[in-house]
Amino acid sequence: PLTTIYLDAVEGGRVEEKYVDDGTVMKKGQPILRLSNTDLQLGLVTQQTNVYNLLTQMQISKNAAQQNTVSKLNQLADVESQFKEAERIYNLDKKLFAEKAIGSQEFEKAKNDYNYLLQKKKLSEQILAQDSVSTQQQLEQAKRSYEGSQTALNVMNQKVGDLIVRAPIDGQLTSLDAEVGQSKNKGERLGQIDVLDGYKVRVDVDEHYISRVFPGLSGEFDFNNKTYKLIIKKVYSQVNNGR
């Protein structure tokens, strides 16, 4: 075959099931065999639990932040209402004091109440703004943590998915070194698939003809009562046993 694709175990495990045998013509993505790996499967369950917990915690934090914001807004609304009333009384008393209709003690009380609630209003607005920024930062951090955990879950899903060995291309499964019950290590060779749309021929040549063999040289090959035209694509120049 012109093209051969080797099948290696992306993840190690025990051979649980074989779907096809040697010689089967495969379609890309068709399952060949299934491995089991308890550690990977437990890791997937653990990661799924982590993602669920993070999602739950993120929702709890979001709800708590919303309730806290509502509480702060209510407090600010109360302060603003008190401030407006204190401002009204202060402006009224200021006018009455100028007309000597009230004493200085009553005016000073109205003035102090006004200044106190003015500062309290500013402080409430500052607290609300800081709380909003802090809440946004916490939610962003929780979101990043969740996204990172989700990415890890996707990787674990892919690893578990790799326990089902599939044909990477269309071709013929010309060898499959796996039996049910066998343990296969990560990276171990499981077999190969040959693409059937083209072939190559390898020929041993006597070392005396090395200088006469070069890429592009044409030739012929008889097989099954048919003559095939060949073109040399590659020369292996190393000499072994005079060939």
Helices, strands, pairings?
Elements: E1 3-8, E2 13-18, E3 25-26, E4 31-36, H1 38-98, H2 104-161, E5 164-166, E6 171-176, E7 183-184, E8 189-195, E9 218-223, E10 226-231
Antiparallel strand pairs: 1-8, 2-4, 2-7, 3-6, 4-5, 6-8, 9-10
Helix pairs in contact: 1-2
Describe the overall structure:
The chain is α+β, with helices and mostly antiparallel strands and 243 residues long. The chain is 49% helix and 21% strand. It contains two helices and ten strands, in the order E-E-E-E-H-H-E-E-E-E-E-E. The strands form three sheets. Strands 1-8-6-3 form a four-stranded antiparallel sheet, with no helix packed on it. A hairpin with a 2-residue loop joins strand 9 and strand 10. The protein is rod-shaped and about 130 Å long. It starts with a strand and ends in a 12-residue tail after the last strand. The model has no long low-confidence stretch (mean pLDDT 90).
